[in-house]
Amino acid sequence: SGITRGTIELREELIDIATILNAAVEASTALIEKSHHQLRVTPPYETLNVYGDATRLTQVVANLLDNAAKYTDRGGRIWLSAQREGDEAVIRVIDSGIGISADRLPHIFDMFTHAAMSLERSGRGGGGGLGVGLSLVDRLVKLHGGTVTAASAGPGTGSEFTVRLPTAEMRDRLAGEVL
Fold it and tell me: What whole-number distance in Å separates Cα of residue 110 and Cα of residue 173?
């Protein structure tokens, strides 16, 4: 509710993306192991720093991992990776899960969108949620000056969520140009 009211304050600091990945994996491990999923983590090849709130960015990645675990049938695969692409730190969560239909994809970050998917999945042990998680992810990423996108070829094909954040170097450059 703090985000929708605009009252959330970020505690920004210089953070290595690898630290965020490690904390998110730690937060999501129980759910991933409970479902017997295979998790592959590919950290960035180099130190990849952003300015951000470590707690909130960990929440973003953990939420994406949790969703991947919830919407992937038992024994599925989840990949978490991060890398530099130009002036952006790019974090991807890819799963072999149930996928997202073309008609739902444009609305995936709307509040309560997952609620309908959760109801559909509840008969199969999906354990969904209220549908606020991806909306929260979207808003937190935007507060950090980034974007998040979702992609899927449709039902049964898995999903890919991509978070793009400005690197610390880019923000430092932009701040220097403003002065």
Answer: 33
Predicted confidence (pLDDT) per residue in 48-79, tens digit: 999 999 999 999 999 999 999 999 999 999 99
Q: Across-strand partners of 160?
A: 94, 151
Judged by DSSP in three states, 1 sits in: coil
Q: Hunting for tokens 């094909």 — which residue is that?
A: 157
Give the CA distances from residue 5 to residues 48, 53, 119, 128, 133, in Å, rounded to whole numbers and listed in that order.
Answer: 31, 18, 28, 25, 16
Which run of H or of E encompasses 94? strand 88-95
Return all residues near 147 (Cβ < 8 A) that are at least 6 apart.
141, 163, 164
Q: How far apart are alpha carbons 36 and 52 in whole angstroms?
A: 32
